[in-house]
Amino acid sequence: MESTLKGIRGSDAPCVLDMDDAATVAGGVGDTYGEDCATEDQLVTPWTVSVASGYNLMRDPRYNKGLAFTEKERETHYLRGLLPPSIVSQELQERKIMNNIRQYQVPLQRYMAMMDLQERNERLFYKLLIDNVEELLPIVYTPTVGEACQKYGSIFSRPQGLYISLKEKGKILEVLKNWPERSIQVIVVTDGERILGLGDLGCQGMGIPVGKLALYTALGGVRPSACLPITLDVGTNNEQLLNDEFYIGLRQRRATGQEYADFLQEFMTAVKQNYGEKVLIQFEDFANHNAFELLTRYGTTHLVFNDDIQGTASVVLAGLIAAQKLLGGTLSEHTYLFLGAGEAGTGIAELIALEISRQTKAPIEECRKKVWLVDSKGLIVNSRKESLQHFKKPWAHEHETVGNLVDAVKAIKPTVLIGTSGKGQTFTQDVIEAISSFNERPIILALSNPTSQSECTAEQAYTWSKGRAVFATGSPFDPVEYDGKIHVPGQANNAYIFPGFGLGVVMSGAIRVHDDMLLAASEALAEQVSEENFEKGLIYPPFSNIRKISAHIAAKVAAKAYELGLASRRPQPKDLVKYAESCMYSPVYRNYR
Fold it and tell me: Known SMART domains for this protein (predicted)?
């Protein structure tokens, strides 16, 4: 990945290991209120501007406990009469809320109920999400979050992050200072131009940063107060939204060119000035032409991460590494064919090539020849090179022109088929039967989100491959019975990687993201797949163990940051897994003084 970006920057441009004093400033945040270091049995003070009490305490989601306030707390904090006399445990509250959520038949209603809980009672929201992650993950994130973004203007009740529009140009630093929290460690930012597989949703893309950061906390343990969702509103080209009376964003066409670049430059400068060198900025759902440009421009000057390019690549590589344990062999023995040559497809392809290069010691250019990509115009080949976008050019190999996917499968004869096209039902019966005809166990990954945009369903993959496919998707699918055997599809969900990756970056005080840190995350995830998982055909571990998985990923990422000299938190902890677990936010209620 870094090799590709360095190629775009130019041969004399710096890489992430070249630290420029001019681009490096002091930074980092402190645990002012003891949220990280306090054990669950220690007393904490519910600070807002002053000590929260009475009605204000009940309206503060960080400290509100509802009916779980004890008798002493009700007396001390002037809550008498403001609550019914009953005192209940957090566990009983959890059972009650889950029972209520399960009554809703429509996923969007469940999403709204969860968002309402997050705005009322932060700890109960995260307790619910952690304890019921497999059931609630599809609600707070893909696929339901896609529908939520489409209807965000209609369901909007109160802001959950910062909206920075072109109106604030020249004042972005002031806008950042309006956010009440000062100790920010992770920012997820979008401009809403490419939300999942749904296209340009403009300002309504805010559901994505909010959802991602909820997972940073629930799955990775980054404390909620250290997370900041941001939407950059530069307009939208979605005519339906521009004509929608409930649309909440700027009613103008998207800014492009120099105006857009200047706006992003001001934003990136303001973030570093306000929050320091060590705040992780995750770019989310930017269009291809901007995603690569931003990663190229700011990768050497800021701590930046693009989940669509790097996170997706890391989780897919983890699945492929695990698949080698299931099937035998090595990554270099496979031929890879992608449908989709955007930021996800090329990002995955590059990380696969990097890992093959690392394993075989072969030049990266040679390793790329094992990877083929199909875009909207067919197979990417040398004869098309002049007309290709810069990020596609490394994947143009010598071959005759091939116009469609099924012919590409027959010509290339891949062992691994990966879909990142954002278009549903593109892995047709002809395609899957073709790859199954020359592979005993074809690896098929239909990664596009949400569910409606998946290249094929689990039932189609198993049926058309006669139950032989090693299959995983981007969105969840139910188990499938074929020929008397239950097949459980894996989910190549970025949520396996980015929460633990972010925790590793934060706890090590890393100041840049390097490709080797992504490879370390992939290897750490693959190590968590058990023999029991393999017996079910799974190449990813169950989400029920996600916090344990995230701690191991964080430890491997942090270790690599220390090894590369990119970590600033010294001394290095002796046991990084235990240290990662100790850093994780706990949603259990605290007792108040």
Answer: malic, Malic_M
